[in-house]
Known about the structure:
This is Secreted Zn-dependent protease. The protein has 71 residues and is mainly α. Helices cover 83% and strands 0% of the residues.
Amino acid sequence: MKRRTARQLVRLLSDIRHAAHCSTLRAAATNRTMALAAAERDADAANDAASDESAETARDVREDKPARSGS
């Protein structure tokens, strides 16, 4: 096995720490993105439900109005 100098070992340790830090940041960013996407999907579903409900209410109001005569 090849012997490494102290400088090489320090550089290798620095690279390992940097890689671990980067993977931790990537994982945190991925988790945050997934949470935001889920929250956005829930908000869209709530908006769709609210718009469906308002459309049904408007349809009910139109059905209750008496028809105007053409005369």
